[in-house]
Amino acid sequence: MNKKLATGLAAALVVNALALPTAFASTNPEQWSPYLGESNNYTSGGTRYTTQDMYWRTGSVVEFEALNDTFEQQIIYYDYDNSAWATEGKALQSNLPDNYLDTPWLDDSGVAGDPNEKNIAVGTFDPTDLATSTWYWATVTLNSTSSSSSMYKIYGQEGLSYCPSVSCVDGQTAAVYIPFKSGFTAPETDRDFKYEWENNNSMTSAADGVSLGDWGAGSLSSTSDVDYWDFNVSSARTVNFFVNMPSGVDYDVNVYNDSGTVVATGRKGSGIDETFSKYLSAGHYYFKIYSYSGSGVYKTYQMIAY
Amino acid sequence: MRKSIKAMGLLSLAVAASVSIFMGGNSTPHATATGEINPSLLNPGKMTAEERINHFKGDLEDLKANPTAQNTVLISLDSLKNKEFVRQLVSNRDVKVNKLFHAFPAAHNTISGLYVARSNETLDQSLADYETQINTMIADKLTQLKAQEAELATKAQSAAQDEKAQEDRLALQAVRNSISDLEQQQASMAAKGLEIYGLQVSGQNADLLTISEQANVKLVEKMSKEKAKWNPILPMGGTR
Q1: Which of A41, A49, A98 has the highest number of chain B CBs within 10 A, making it the mutation to test binding with B?
Q2: Which residues of A touch B17 (CB under 8 A)?
Q3: Residues of A whose CB is below 8 A from B155
Q4: Among A35-39, A113-117, A120-124, A138-142, which stretch is predicted with the lowest mean pLDDT?
Q5: B46 — contact with chain A (CB < 8 Å)?
Q6: Contact of A147 with A83, CB cutoff 8 Å
Q7: Over the stretch A161-212, which tens digit does the pLDDT of each residue have?
Q8: pLDDT given at position A105
Q9: Element containing residue A160 per DSSP (H, E)
Q10: Does the CB of B44 have a partner CB in chain A at under 8 Å?
Q11: What is the pLDDT of residues B73-102, one digit of tens each?
């Protein structure tokens, strides 16, 4: 950022600290992300489609109150090896209020100019009209590439529709719900995700439940914050664990059985994804993510047991 | 470049927010001190239909002033119309329909969307392709939602009474509402076909004007980069 511009921006933000929309004052994704979601990427009648389902729980849309807030959910098919399953949306049907299919012009070469991450986005111009305890969904017809499969990423963006004379600004803050992960490729259906619901800081009563194969996303807001997720194993099997580690932090992982005994751990260093496997008997388990070092509301992780 | 633009935007927005507070709050956040809509803060989701019509009514005069120039316009219709109406609307005009917009006011939420025409396809091809894709989307979405209903029903059986367990039960009812809405749309599609509430058209201003002056056209807005994602005004009012 231009230094003079940055100084001016900082000054303006200070002067207007009380006047600014809330969206600029807080960026905790839990306050604007869907609590539940499902992604389907499939072919029907020879045409490729993606559908994104979004469910905001009670109290989870409080962030949407600013001037020109938008919410956008973006899907990106991995194209670093030119294998993207799709690169473009062609038609949309959705029950999101004031919905739109993004037609990027500034970043039409991909997210933030990265040609390897061409985003297909559905959004709402009016997230203040989002109702809690409602399933919203968006189905998009995709172009067909020569690729038969590719990894994909899903992320949400609290944005804004703001167009000064020569350019538009459309992003404030984003949170990944499903990261690029080998073995999780489009086409696939019924891939669920959940965003953490604080308080999830104790094993016994407040863990966020997920099924094996569901993604969970969250962040540690301080070094004392911990996130508990719980899941069931219906019959003995090897369970694989993965945590997509935010850069610059070192979160560690414990897996507990229902008695509270540690049965598996992940202890890799800063910025390194946690990945390990464990043979587990049938039962109820807990997955604890805690900070060995580093924290912050921007540092969203994604975890999965599968 | 993008970061700088974003910073500029935030800076300007901060100033705009300050102006808004000076004016006594942001109850009309897109209004400037003169009462006009600040074009840099336009968001169709934040404008009433009346505000939008008043702000863009001058676009028609611009078209009249330059009848031979080329333009792209967004046309809002005053009600949901069938495919034949759309065909008639643009018939005998040398224009290209770039986008079509459909809607269905279901009981719980309005379902809406759009179709982006390929550069070489005719309007008839676009309408046929659009309707086929929407029918497929409805059928597939119903299958997915019914599977989701089964998953949520299992979770909702929990006897727990904490807020997370209660939310599971709310999610189950919500998915049933979505299924009901889509079944209504499916029945409507079978009975009436796709219903259109707007279109984006490119062509010579003279042709665009002829289309614009027909009955049932509620508003014509010139397109710009800033409005690339905009939809026509939903005729049933409201957004859900």
Answers
A1: A98
A2: 16, 19-21, 67
A3: 209
A4: A113-117
A5: yes
A6: yes
A7: 666 555 566 667 889 999 999 999 999 999 999 999 998 999 877 789 999 9
A8: 45
A9: strand A150-160
A10: yes
A11: 999 999 999 999 999 999 999 999 999 999
**Does the beta-carbon distance from B167 to A133 stay under 8 Å?**
yes
Q: Are strands A274-280 and A237-244 parallel, antiparallel or unpaired?
A: antiparallel
Give A95-124 pLDDT, tens digit per residue.
999 999 985 544 444 555 578 888 899 999
Contact A97 B45 (CB under 8 A): yes
Q: How would DSSP label each residue in A25-69? A: H---GGGTS-SEEEEEEEEETTEEEEEEEEEEPTT--TT--STTE
Q: How far is A268 from chain B (nearest CA, A)?
A: 31
With CB atoms and an 8 Å threshold, state whether A44 touches B11.
no
Closest Cβ–Cβ partner in A36, A68, A94 for B112: A94
pLDDT band at B14 (very low <50, low <70, confident <90, very high): very low
Q: Residue B95 has which token pair?
A: 């224009």
* B11 contacts A9? CB cut-off 8 A: yes
Query: What integer best gives the mean pLDDT of chain A?
Result: 85
How many residues can be counted in chain B?
240
Question: In chain A, which residues have their Cβ closer than 8 Å to the Cβ of B200?
Answer: none
Contact A194, A29 (CB under 8 A): no
Contact flag A99-B130 (C-beta cutoff 8 Å): no
Number of cross-chain residue pairs from A and B with Cβ atoms under 8 Å apart: 236
Q: What is the C-alpha to C-alpha distance for residues A278 and A166, in angstroms, rounded to an integer? A: 55
User: What is the model's pLDDT at position A146?
Assistant: 97
Is residue B226 less than 8 Å (CB to CB) from chain A? yes
Measure CB to CB from residue A91 to each of B130, B170, B231 and give the nearest one.
Answer: B130
**Closest residue by Cα to residue B234 from B141, B107, B111, B84:** B111
Q: How confident is the model at residue B238 (pLDDT cuts 50, 70, 90)?
A: low
Amino acid in position A196: E
